[in-house]
Amino acid sequence: MREAVLESLRSVNDPELHRDLVSLGMIERIDVAQLEHAAGSAITVKVNLTTPACPLKATIERDVRAAVLGVPGVETVSVEFGAQVRMPATPPLPGVKNVLLIGSGKGGVGKSSVAVNIACALAQSGAAVGLMDADVYGPSVAHMLGQGSAKLVGNAERKMVPLEAHGIRFISMANLSPAGQALVWRGPMLHSAIQQFLKDAAWGNLDYLIVDLPPGTGDVQLSLTQSVQVTGAVIVTTPQDVALIDAARAIDMFRKASVPVLGIIENMSYFVAPDTGIVYDLFGRGGAAKLGNYPLLGEVPLDTDVRRDADEGTPAVISHPDAAASKALRQIAENLAGRVSVQTLAELPMAQLV
Ligand SMILES: Nc1ncnc2c1ncn2[C@@H]1O[C@H](COP(=O)(O)OP(=O)(O)OP(=O)(O)O)[C@@H](O)[C@H]1O
């Protein structure tokens, strides 16, 4: 019976990876139990997803159930899920499976807010997540996580120990330099700071290390793409033309550095009036589509909760999980995790999948 069930699962494709669950090594266990009062068997299938934030869990469950119910003699099916983010062919750092860059063309489009919320949403789903604030000139991650005045310390191996908040580990220049003081650094100093944040920090084991870049196309971006094997970059933009022009430059920079652009996030996409429910497209919702053929990971509405929660140090996906913006941000985190799986598995030789 177990063999017949396994065979039936060869017909179920992961909808994003376009390969069947068996050859992807996603079937962790098949249990067969004989039912007492029925002729057939009760089957339990455990599917090991490629990310705990899988956006297509419901589809996979439905398809597994249908395939297994089609096997003669099967009476009931229950589907269990586990998840393990796959180690890519070339891990970017020891213990770190993916480095994801969050960039923008313009400042103030909400890149840090999006990065912080995505990091928290991925951690909420069960992933091990780190957040590195590479926006050295305007570090806001620590403040958005309620840790603006915390100080970074070293461990016995003289490695920087990331701070922790809301289930993620993070490092920000704000936790090294005195508050309110401007950083006046040239390229080489920035390069060595970025190296230290990446390589002289005790990140531990991470599924995703998210990097909040400074806006634009400068030294930090260059330094990062040259220092580690990056899984991909995400561009945050607002929908109006002036933001899109700069976003296109950022995309071009990643293309030239051979960093895959995993998708675009349109922030401040629209506004829903809380009293009337009327939707206002303040900046021209849908503008991000003009950036070309890149997946749109999602649209985040302008929402007071996002701003207020960032100022108060608890990201919206945690303090207001039911707000429309939080739902959009969670969906974006899942879509991004899905894109990362596609990217990693496309590069892994078939033999390493099972
Ligand atoms: N969807 C949103 N709704 C309401 N406010 C938002 C939203 N996204 C961001 N904001 C607010 O907009 C301001 C700018 O956001 P943020 O600092 O994340 O932008 P940024 O692109 O990282 O800026 P910079 O690159 O200049 O540091 C913040 O006050 C933030 O709380």
From TrEMBL:
Record keyword Nucleotide-binding present: yes
Iron-sulfur recorded as keyword: yes
CDD domains: Mrp_NBP35
Gene3D superfamilies with a match to the protein in the record: Fe-S cluster assembly (FSCA), P-loop containing nucleotide triphosphate hydrolases
Pfam families, sorted: FeS_assembly_P (PF01883), ParA (PF10609)
InterPro entries the record matches: FSCA_dom_sf, MIP18-like, Mrp-like_CS, Mrp/NBP35_ATP-bd, NUBPL-like, P-loop_NTPase, YlxH/NBP35
Domain (MIP18 family-like) ranges: 2-79
Keywords for this protein: ATP-binding, Hydrolase, Iron, Iron-sulfur, Metal-binding, Nucleotide-binding
UniProt binding sites for ATP: 105-112
An example Gene Ontology molecular-function term: ATP binding
Superkingdom of origin organism: Bacteria
Family of this protein: In the C-terminal section; belongs to the Mrp/NBP35 ATP-binding proteins family.
Function according to Swiss-Prot or TrEMBL: Binds and transfers iron-sulfur (Fe-S) clusters to target apoproteins. Can hydrolyze ATP.
Oligomer status and interactors: Homodimer.
Protein known as: Iron-sulfur cluster carrier protein
Species name: Deinococcus rubellus
